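Progress report, Aim 2. The chain analyzed during this reporting quarter is listed below.
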Amino acid sequence: MKIYSQGDQAIVVSIEKEVSQDLTEDLLALKDYFVAHDYPFITEIVPTESDIMICYDARDMIKHHNINSPFKYMKDLIESIQLEIRHVPSSENVTEIPVVYGGAYGPDLDALLNFYDMDLSSFIKLHTQNNYFVSMMGYSPGFPYLTGMDKRLFVNHTGKEKTFIPAGAVIIEGKKTGINTTDTYGDWLVIGYTPIKLFDPQQEDFTKLKLGDNVQFKAYQPHELDLGGFNPCQS
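Predicted structure tokens for the chain:
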């Protein structure tokens, strides 16, 4: 574990391990510890795939809490924390994501199949056989970056140009799969579509998936799902 400052009002805890479900749960446990203890001078906690940044109000620490060195205080505090972490097997609490692969729903899939030298059924089998976990949230509200994809599906390129990508698009980027949550333009490789709404600002709990959640994809034909007003093109 590496601890270092990020400017004069933030500290980063970096766990130098390969990204994994257990690593994500370690970082979430550290975040939960700070949230539970409700330190008044901590202003924000931002976990990522392999580290967590804890922002603090250094002026408040010095003026109101008699802490002469905010960074040293935070570093000593982090090193003193003993966490009891229960790693939940990935087979528990899995969210199933129905997907229609290819065609208008996955316009980049044909080119990817040529790149992989693979047929559609083999691709779908590889993409749906593993459990994924949400290793990072970002880009847009509720957007999950999913780790756990079969290495045979890794890519080292993006689309040739930016195009319209609707909410619900299932994409591949590098070593990860993602699910677009808002209509956007981008150069992600779109392999399919899901009607599951992952972001709904009208709901109190407005994101369906959270950091550390488990996901499994399941393939469907278009007629087997209610696809609502799906339109692969910008209106």
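The first strand starts at residue 2 and ends at 5. The domain at 2-80 is CATH 3.30.1360.40 (Gyrase A; domain 2). These observations will guide the mutagenesis work planned for the next reporting period.
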